[in-house]
Amino acid sequence: MLLIKCPYCGQRPETEFKCGGEAHIARPEDPSALNDEAWADFLYTRSSIKGVLAERWMHSHGCQRWFNALRNTHSDAFLITYEMGKPRPAVDENGELK
Amino acid sequence: MSAPFRLPSGGRIDRSKPLTFTFNGQSIPAFRGDTLASALLASGKVLFGRSFKYHRPRGLLSHGSDEPNALFSVDRGPGRVDPNNRASVVDVTNGLTIETQNHWPSLDFDIGAVNDVLSPVFVSGFYYKTFMWPKSFWTKVYEPIIRAAAGLGKPPVAPDPDRYGNRHAHVDVLIAGAGPAGLAAALAAAKSGKRVVLADEQQEMGGALLHETTAEIEGKPASVWLSETLAELAGYPNVTLLPRTTVFGYYNHNHLVAIERVTDHLDRPGETIRERLWQFRAAEVVIAAGSLERPLAFADNDRPGIMLAESVRVFINRYGVLPGRQIVFATTSASAYQAAIDARKAGVDVTLVDLRTQAGPEKALAVSAGVKVMSGYTVIRSEGTKRVKALIVAPVDASGKVSGPRVRLVCDCVGMSGGWTPSVHLFSQSRGKLSFEAERDLFVPGTSVQAERSAGACRGTFDLAGALNEGFAAGAAACGSAETRNFSASPVMTGFKAVRVLPTDENPTKVKAFIDFQNDVTAKDVGLAVREGFHSIEHVKRYTTTGMASDQGKTSNMNALGIVADILQKPIPAVGTTTFRPPFTPVSFGALINLNRHGLFDPARHTPIHDWAAAQGAVFEDVGQWRRARYFPKPGEDMHAAVLRECKQTRESAGIFDASTLGKIEVVGPDAAEFMNRIYINAWTKLEPGRCRYGLMLKEDGYVFDDGVVARIAEDRFHVTTTTGGAPRVLAHMEDYLQTEWPDLKVHLTSTTEQWAVIAVQGPKARDIIAPLVDDIDLSPEAFPHMAMRSGHICGVPTRMFRVSFTGELGYEINVPADYGRAVWEAVYAAGKPHGIVPYGTETMHVLRADKGFIIVGQDTDGTQTPDDVGYGGMIAKAKPDFVGKRSLARPDCVAPGRKQLVGLLTENPQELLDEGAQIVADPNQPVPMKMLGHVTSSYPSAALGRSIAMAMVADGRNLTGKTLYITTPKGFTTAVVTGTVFFDPKGERLNG
Amino acid sequence: MVESNIIRRPVLAGRSALGSSITMTVAAPATRFILRLDPASASAVGSAGGFDVSGPINSVRGSNGKLAVRLGPNEWFLIVEDGEGAALEAAIAASLGDRFHALVDVSHRNTAVLLSGENVVDVLNAGCPIDLSDAAFAPGSATRTILGKSEIVLIRPASGDGWRVECWRSFAPYVFEFLTEASR
To answer: Is the per-residue pLDDT at B801 higher than 80?
Structure first.
């Protein structure tokens, strides 16, 4: 069971959260302006990497806020969690926060 | 029965507390503090079971949790029969009943032992090689026989009457193992004031100190130091001592799980829980798990009476039991000398055979204690079947070859030691990387991944003072301190030479030198597997089954690994280790399930009206966690009859239905309408307060996600309803968009599902029934039209009353605060009785809506339907620039011709009922595989139509209206005609009552 | 108005836990609101309708029987003895003036169990995975969390030794039975 630091509530067990998949994929301002390929890309294409991934998490059985997290998908280590709207923190080539 | 092998004094057993238990029907004496193993040995028993494959007689290999052989079925009374208990870890209690396993007709005479003679047949991969042909034999012949012969114990048949607990615990320092290193770690950590938990699997804490009768610590006998240390630790309020608690799993982010055996050691357990699952979240972990002794591989090394050398020492020193009167130790390890010395001190005849030609200082000590030491001897084989009778040994030369005549050493017990393997299980489970010390032939903890550190024998520090010092430093470091302490302790005998299989002059392919005792895997089996091409240790494990089952290869892994590495001529790290997985030792299902059974298995959600329905004899169905009344049978009625009656009566007069489970969300804020516009396909801006609209929402992929009636309560407030099952996901979906895509919108969402009880009154008499109960809402059709909402009171309590219909009839859905729900329901029902009101359940609700062609999301849809596919394309507010899913509706696939569409189906025989899920084709005579056009989604006998009706998703379905299609039935194809989906009252006139 | 003698019929009415290692009672019916308010507005007003909204996230503030549980950055759960909800709603709205907020009556959505005694933390930790020690969850703390398979709001008011477990109505029997079993 992972331990996840909610930006609002602090460290809480994974069972209080739900994961919302990859983060920083903004819904296009005007979807109708996208061609089919670009829209399909927005809908379905995810990076699915081994390494540090920015993910959306919701503290659903807590403050019920969505936030973002950098998680190493190989080690399950959380590098950082941060509030929605904040930019993705930079990570160096070793997968550590810069 | 007496205990002839019990020493007159000594040991940690309480001789003032005699006990008896029953072993295969025989009464066995014991003392408090005995395990089954020690008590049975004291009584002269050595035959404890039959081996898995060959049914060879087996005794005890070990004194601890690594025991592979002595597995008993333990009977603590009805429902409390538990198979595969290791004799070495079960505490004796008065009246316990024990049975041995895996033999027929008896332990002494076992027919299955013929397998031992046939053993050339049972080679590695025997099952894979043998039971291949003919294919048809597998299910009928091979599998039943294998299943009958496989396995060891028999599972209990009665329900488990015991209770089990669960505890989430947050600790600063968790110490796994209370041997010297763990105790020293606890001493260091205790002083910090932090929350410290010390857990140990044994009934008493102390680990190896419990049988240490020679060494001193800090100038005191080890046992004295132990009791003083435990007393000191018990005095710290911040320290929790958990004996009988095995830390069996090390998971992510320092989540460690342990099982505490609370009552199995008690004669009368009382009312408390039997076991408790501990779920620790530790800031820091100290692993002090000790080490496991390696057996020696030689021919017939599995005979009863042959055990690990240290175990001989434990039985003598800790339990006051002699495992034999003529003991031979066979070793490549210094530690066995101490065992030999202790055995000699107990007064028996002791010989020690050491493969090593050069022993350390231990040799002189042993010789002076009266042990006959034979250096440079290998073991060729043992003699004896049900108890070892002799050990055949022979000298070896410097190259390790047998170099002289055999010597027969008569004995009734053999203690063997091939050295020690650090218990790196927890470390490895933590995903830490092992490193291999080739010189000492040890895998030890290498790079840590989590906040843990290992100390003592589990990281290869076998020396007593070293383990204490290391443990103390680890405990201090876990508290952020660099403090160290130098313990004074007697030197102990350490060091060993790793030998995978003892040298022999016999044909190694003819002898059984067991590597894995529990799975009956011999050295030649492992060799054969490698020669057959299984070079990965993970493959060897699965092909030979070495290292599998309940002991998980604790005693066998290193030897198996070494054999593979030797044959492949690779260094051990290149062969790798198998993965260490939890649990470290077997854990009961009861503890894993703990409180989550019976009524607590899953919350059963009831509406405020549930008890009324139950009292009326309703039959319930599960809808997610909700229990919903499905129908209300009268005496003698089946579901079909009850539903027909409920449907008929509702359409003729009125029905009352509990819709409380509908999801409800209050959407509040100045941007509420804008938010609704973006979430739903419908338009909301112009919906006036006091009006309702059916809303349909899509996911971003354009497919129908959920639906429900929405009422606008005020300019800035909507009362949204969702499907019963969809309530949580719809709220989550809305919150997701609100928080992550449109945080600028001034809107908030609150779940009100359980705030409101919802009483649906449907039917031509609905208005008449509720009218007397309402006086501040004008119910007249003009003042309160269809799809309107009025706030007011019913029966004097506040209500939000919706005039809506999921039946096609005049209808109201009366929302009242939930605590009033039951009373209002009863009042409405009473008022309806003179009008012939009928309570109806979900089944009738389904039929009534199908009459009208209303979809049920999740039944008529499966997450791949656009609004147009279900015939609701006209609801889309096309003028809206955007809403969730809109762009996807223009994807090529969503606008392509030939998509499946929802249609009605009427069977040619009006009484024939199609199966929901049945496949539909155009031509039943086409070759297989046929082209499937779609499937039936809903099918009911309709009371209103006096015939069956069905809905189906059919490719290009609306263009097939009037055509005959073929639908599968269990007996073949039947036919039905494609129709529209509205079967009843197509003009909707009945909505007016 | 139609005469009525309908009174609230709480889901756990009449339940009691016997032989328990803690004291467990069913809380009296209450009036409850979810108040959504920007943190800045909350700081500015300090209290709304007599509810103290000045506490940090995961705290409970209470005076005169009015508990204000802050569940998140902009969410307060207000609990007061069962009574006139409409007047309270008006009072809260009046305190907030034209500051954007959302107020929803959830009086009947929830029900509550009151716990006290030395073993409360152990009993709760049978199903609640968070750290409830004094250091981590001092009196005055509150949070939404989990008990077994139910969501709960766990409230430890600053005064007294009691705990309040709030849950949705239909989960109440489960929560009550879970606590009963855990405290046996």
So the answer is: yes
Domain C23-183 carries which CATH code?
3.30.1360.120
pTM, entire model:
0.95
Domain range for A64 is: 1-26+42-98
Q: How do residues B344-370 score in pLDDT, each as one tens digit? A: 999 999 999 999 998 999 999 999 999
Phi, psi of B349 (to 5 degrees): -80, 125
* Structure confidence at residue B577 (pLDDT): 83
Is residue C158 within 8 Å of B197, Cβ to Cβ? no
Q: Residue B739: list chain A partners with CB under 8 A.
A: 65-66, 84
- Secondary structure of residue B106 in the 3-state scheme: coil
Residue with tokens 């008990």: C147
Residues of A within 8 A of B701 (CB-CB) are 43
Beta bridge partners of B966: B921, B975
Tell me whether A9 touches chain B (CB under 8 Å). Answer: no
Q: What is the CATH number of domain B609-661+755-852?
A: 3.30.1360.120
Closest CA of chain A from B352, distance in Å: 49
CATH number of B292-420+494-575: 3.50.50.60
For the domain spanning B896-993, the CATH number is 2.40.30.110
A8 touches chain B (CB under 8 A): no
| DSSP classification of residue B567 | H
Phi, psi of C90 (to 5 degrees): -65, -40
Fold of B662-752: Alpha-Beta Plaits (3.30.70)
When pLDDT is averaged across residues C17-39 and rounded to a whole number, the result is 90
Please report the residues numbered 101 through 160 in chain C whose beta carbons come closer than 8 angstroms to any beta carbon of chain B.
102-110, 122, 125-131, 133, 136, 148-150
Is the separation of the CB atoms in B294 and B420 below 8 Å? Answer: yes
**Which of A1, A9, A61 is nearest residue C57 as measured by Cβ atoms?**
A9
Q: CATH number of the domain at B164-291+422-478, please?
A: 3.50.50.60
pLDDT in tens, B406-415: 999 999 999 9
8 Å CB contact between B710 and B695: yes
Q: Give me the residue from C71, C129, C144 closest to A15, CB to CB.
A: C129
- C-alpha span between B791 and B798 (Å, rounded): 7
Check if B1-159 and B609-661+755-852 are the same fold: no
Which chain A positions have a beta carbon within 8 Å of C128's beta carbon? none
Mean pLDDT by groups of 10 residues along chain A of 98 residues: 97 97 96 97 95 97 98 95 96 91
Strand segments, DSSP code E, in B648-733 are: 654-658, 663-668, 692-698, 704-714, 717-722
Please tell me the total count of domains within chain A.
Answer: 1
Confidence bin at B756 (pLDDT 50/70/90) = very high
Which CATH architecture is the domain B1-159 placed in? Roll (3.10)
Subunits touching C (CB < 8 Å, at least 3 pairs)? A, B
